[in-house]
Amino acid sequence: MEVRISPQMSVMEKLKILGAAAKYDVSCSSSGSSRQNDGQGIGNTVAAGLCHSFAADGRCVSLLKILFTNECIYDCRYCLNRCSNDVPRASFTPDEVCELTMEFYRRNYIEGLFLSSGILYSPNYTMELICETVHKLRTVHRFQGYIHVKAIPGADPLLIQRAGYLADRMSVNLEMATAEGLKEMAPNKHRRNILKPMRQIQNGITENKHELTLYKHAPHFCEAGQSTQMVIGALPESDYQIMSVAENLYDKFSLKRVYYSAFVNVNEDKDLPALAGGPPLLREHRLYQADWLLRFYDFKVDELLAADRPNFNTAIDPKADWAVRHLELFPVEINRADYRLLLRIPGVGVKSARRIVSARRFGSLTFEDLKKIGVVLKRALYFITCNGRMMYPTKIEENYIVRNLTYQNQMGKGEKLPFMTDGTIYQQMSLFS
Amino acid sequence: MEEKYLVCEDSLEGIFTGIYEAYALREGHEHVHIQIGEEDNYRLFAVYLHISPDTVKTGKVARTLLERLGESVYHGLCRAAASCYPDKGEAVYKAVVDAITQGSGRHVMENLRNPYVQRAFELARYTANEAHFETEFIRFQELEQGILFSRIGPKNNVIPFIMPHFADRLCPENFMIYDENRELFGVHPAKEEWYLVSAQGDFIPEQLKWSVKEEGYQELFKAFHETIGVKERENRRLQRQMCAYRYQDYMVEFQKK
After folding, report:
1. Nearest residue on chain B to A17, judged by CA atoms?
2. How confident is the prediction for chain A on average, in pLDDT?
3. Percent of chain A that is helix, strand, coil (3-state, to 5)
4. A195 Cβ contact list (under 8 Å, min separation 6)
5. Which of A69, A151, A301, A390 sits between 20 and 30 A of A383, alpha carbons compared?
6. Same domain for A345 and A229?
7. Which of A298, A318, A293, A315 minimizes the C-alpha distance to A306?
8. pLDDT tens digits, A11-24
9. Does residue A157 register a pLDDT over 70?
10. pLDDT of residue B32
């Protein structure tokens, strides 16, 4: 089969089309795999990942995120590249992708390659193209940096396995939180087809771990695990449904990350919400906050939300929200509470909790010490005592605390959101301008 | 008792020699201080001793710290000593006293109740953070001879901390990183050990000639960087917060044509 695109299109034009086509995929992390250079080629990976630049929307640019082609046989309603859209189409050749990756990588522009693709002819044909490209990059160019590839749902398991041995991370996008939602939005995709490769990759990673304990030099299979993504706000799903799905994915499919993508109506489809106020960024932000609580703070979804309280509070973050509903546990004595309880205090993060635990071995801590350690006292002060004393006399009462926490927000001093919810920016008043 | 100020050179060697001399005084540590560089405002009733850096003494201090405090504390102290703040000498010295003489040992960086340890910890973190940002935001340009060249302007002396990362990553490449604030080069010849060199005479980075393909790749990356942002989510404030202007000044994708 021949690729249909006219070959005379320049790499610049292709990069513009295929970079723009890939930008709605959120995942851009380069974390989870740690590998030194073996002296044979170029590149290594860093466990925490590196962001090499930040785009105009404030999101990090870590990987060269492109589609192999934006030709697609599917007609998903939310997608810019659906076959019924009249958009310019382009395809890279494997050599072009390799050259771009290598040259960008040498200049420290990127941490590696993120290769996704529209479905050209068939899932198998597309997956084969992806495999061929990545194979070339790993063997001919001896590239040892980070590679993230998509597993195309419906592709042959053997192809997915092959890609897994070449890539650091793989992902299959769940797209919608519910199976019915997916059916409505993407008539050609089926939830079963999405979960199948996800399970395959999970099993592959588990087996690979066993192999690696036996044979130190066995090849790695998706060293950095797998991730997925859900679109938020295109359908009337509740936060509770979304978070429950995420929790299941973490527990049952051992995913590394679940990404949430605020819906952008790129196609102006009449059946999809118009979202006059822009994409639902605050909701996305709350979901990410809750996601962190699941992964690093030992929270369960049922503690944060319930069937009769299915959405997050927009005024305060999920952790503070949980805390004010459980005031019977507070105030917590900083010098005595165990690590897990410290983590539950609003204003105390993973790092400060660890520092508290190790610093208090040398003697009891004061509020001044806590400030230096990095605890956000203006949030924490309602929930903690140091040596039996609170910082200021405060009432331990739900309404009072919520009022104070949100009052700080109104003054622009409280919770720092990465964006303005109502478009206002608080500025110092000037009498002279 | 009179206060003693050991005036040391602004370098790791200077500070370590200062620590050696402070211990050699055998007068306790309460009234002995390390100061980096010349004092503009001398104190009354204080003695100023000038210490010139000494390789042997530095080596002794470094070995002792490594053996007794372990690698991670040692690296933390080195990072603090690479900071741009002049109180680093005193902070590193008193943190060493806390570790070795007052016995917090390998856990010294956790003893955040001690204000000097706190300061050393803070300075070390500041250098480490900046080094981390530089590993992310450095942009190499390919020169005519195929050498990769990068110019940076960090506040702290980060080159020694970022070279190992790039030496591993770009192992088969000849590359160098130039710190224009300190006029210092980190040089890595392909597949060999890296080293530091001070710039001799007037080095003008603008005079370097790019390779033929360099500009093409810069344009490609600029185009990619522009297309990857989602217009509906534009947020320059967040962009600036994540990547400060002082880094953007050195990055190709933020340069106007």
Report:
1. B227
2. 88
3. 40, 10, 50
4. A253
5. A301
6. no
7. A318
8. 999 999 999 999 88
9. yes
10. 92
Nearest to A310 by CA among A263, A250, A260, A243: A243
Domain boundaries, chain B: 3-130, 135-254
Number of domains in chain A: 2
Whole-angstrom distance between the N-terminal and C-terminal Cα of chain B?
A: 63
A160-194 pLDDT, tens digit each:
999 999 999 999 998 888 888 898 888 888 899 99
Q: Average pLDDT of B12-21?
A: 94
Q: Using a CB–CB cutoff of 8 Å, tell me whether B131 touches chain A.
A: no
CB contact under 8 A, A15 and B229: no
For residue A124, being part of any structural domain is answered with yes
pLDDT, average across residues A32-36: 88
Q: Are residues A91 and A240 in the same domain?
A: yes
Assigned domain for A215 exists: yes
Residue finishing a domain among A255, A272, A304: A304
Is pLDDT at B165 greater than 50 in this prediction? yes
Contact call for B227 and A20, based on CB within 8 A: yes
The reply to whether A53 and A128 lie within a common domain is: yes
**What's the pLDDT score for residue A315?**
85
* A313 located within any domain: no
Distances (CA, A) of A430 to A425, A427, A433: 14, 9, 6
Give residue A60's identity as a one-letter amino acid code: C
B111 and A24 in contact by Cβ < 8 A? Answer: no
Q: Mind listing the pLDDT tens digit for each residue in A358-389? A: 988 888 999 998 998 889 998 899 999 999 89
Record the pTM. 0.89
Last residue of a domain, one of A250, A272, A304: A304
Q: Residue A341 sits in which domain range?
A: 318-410
Nearest CA in chain A to B219: A12
Looking at this predicted complex, what is its ipTM? 0.91
Q: Which of B136, B161, B253, B254 would best serve as a mutation to test chain A binding (most A beta carbons within 10 A)?
A: B136
- Percentage of chain A modeled with pLDDT above 90: 60
Q: Do both A149 and A249 map to the same domain?
A: yes
**Residues of chain B contacting residue A16, judged by C-beta atoms under 8 Å apart:** 223-224, 227
Minimum distance, in Å, between the CA of residue B113 and any CA atom of chain A:
6
Q: For residue A5, tell me if it sits in a domain.
A: no
Tell me which chain B residues have a C-beta less than 8 angstroms from the C-beta of A60.
242
Q: Which residues pair with B186 in a beta bridge?
A: B177, B196
CATH number reported for the structural domain that contains residue A290 in this entry: 3.20.20.70
Token pair belonging to A104: 């960008």
